[in-house]
Amino acid sequence: MNNVFSPKRFGKYFLYDLENAKNNFGLTLLILGLMPMILYAVFQLINLIFNRTLIINADGFIPARISSGIICVAVATFAFGTKVYGSITDKRAGSSFLMLPASTFEKWLSMVLMGCVVAPICLSILYVGSDTIMGLLFPNSFGTPIVKMPFYDILAETEIPVDIKINYTGIAWGNWCWYMLFFTLGGIYFKKGKVGKSILVMFFLTILTSLLFAAIVGHFETDWVNDALLLNTIDEDPEVAIRKIIGLGKALLYAQLVILLGLSYLRLRTIKH
Which of 9, 51, 54, 116 is the most interior residue, by most CB within 10 Å? Predict the structure, then answer.
């Protein structure tokens, strides 16, 4: 068991991995986390140069804030795995990685925790913190801070009127983990063009999945297939149907995460230089 996992050894490796992540992605993470401040300063500067005035309409700044948030999350999930762990596909860096005093399981566990727990927590603290500071300092031109926005009230108004509570935070974190694990796998698998090739693989997998789904529905319209794909829920009680659909969505997400976790571990275990 000590050859697979040792708490003391894992702790030392995790701290090393944390330092490595800070060195390779710390600056990028800081820029992404401070994006509300950077974006606000850029918008005000451009408006001052061309219109000789400052932005005082906070509503007009909301689309830019939403877009920047989405872009920051996308950049973080696309680039983190490649920048922090992509070097292990290189001969010299990869050989050094293999020689580190930790088991494959410990390296894999640290990689998963770094991408799925540490990175989102750090990005959230930085982004929400900078957004809150700007909202408090410039409420009329920047707008309401994220932490004070009635997101759940808005979602409640659009929610299907049945007695079902949806864990939006869990959904967001699950999708973060999926993208993070997918692009990290691409970063430790491909030697060049890591992000681009990963996007191409995702594109082809999406097409393949859609074709398989269409083929199953179109050519095997049996009762058990319809039940499995929840195609017979239309005439059921809405709450029962929605619960089945949510359950299927969770099952598919969990299955995909398990596959990505398994492939990542297999890659680390079989990598050679």
Answer: 116
